[in-house]
Amino acid sequence: MDKVVDTAAEAVEGIVDGMTLAVGGFGLSGIPSVLIAEVLAKGSTDLEVVSNNCGVDDWGLGLLLNEGRIRRIIASYVGENKEFARQYLAGELEVELTPQGTLAEKLRAGGSGIPAFFTATGVGSQVSEGGMPWRYDSEGNVALASPSKETRDFTVSGQTRPYVLEESITADFGLIRAWKGDRHGNLVFRASARNFNPLCAMSGKVSVAEVEELVEPGELAPDDIHLPGIYVQRVLELTAQQAKEKRIEKRTVTPADESTQEG
Q1: For the segment 67-92, what is each residue's pLDDT rounded down to a tens digit?
Q2: Count of alpha carbons within 13 angstroms of residue 113, beta-carbon side
């Protein structure tokens, strides 16, 4: 039951070219930065990544992107990464944009053994009708577009409306970060870091958690556990420095008034 590994290299062992990785985090909050850096050092390429976003140009998944290691990404928001936009528009990167709630449910359903589900989100748009550009060619033409999806009418609370069929997502590996974890893989997330992390862990056939604080089994109260260890195969304890190193996408401060500046 002891799932703790000693090194980051051991944590990502088995990740090979062409695999699909479900990577936790929301913006830069809760991203498994140490595991991402180790995948970069390992040299794995031709990866398909499922994540809320793709980091920023110099941190998180942006590091893999800058090295051309990502072939395809399924994400819901990509607005903070200039290199992402360049690769996508140049035809170097395939992108499947997915509504954020739908992406979350795709991951959760995949981890729960549910192959597909119907949702109202996206009905009447390119999400359901198809034609969303997934990949461009070098001249800016659409080389690959999203297909149309099955829709069906359902009556919910007395209202009949169309719903679109969405297939769930499973990944070869789930890479996540937690605030606390024990040797059995039970995890606790802190504040906004409890975002896509549990879902990405559920989706992965092999899920690896980097934890800021490792505790012994029994130290976590059962009611405090956000993700049970059944979904986690490996646990990597971070050093104090690794746990401390976090980024903020945008920092906004209120400028001091003139009297404050003069004083």
Answers
A1: 999 999 999 988 778 899 999 999 99
A2: 1
